[in-house]
Amino acid sequence: MQKLKGLVLLCFFWVIANISASAQCAMCRATLETNVSNGSETVLSANLNFGILYLFAAPYIIIAAVGYFWFRNSRKTKNNH
Questions:
Q1: What letter does residue 44 receive in the DSSP assignment?
Q2: What pLDDT was estimated at residue 70?
Q3: pTM over 0.90
Q4: What angle, rounded to 10 degrees, do the helices at 2-36 and 41-80 form?
């Protein structure tokens, strides 16, 4: 019975997460649609896509760099002892 309750709760949170995530796509589309009349659709959409990828990748790159330096430092201290 506990597994069933956990599964129902997980499904509920999954549905809630999808509802809040879809609102951001509408905002991006509205931004692009306002600038289509200027004829700069391709440049703006390319820049918007690059910005999304930059915001997506930046935290992972920072975490990977910290992990690398931490690992390198721990190996140096282990070799010195």
A1: H
A2: 93
A3: no
A4: 130
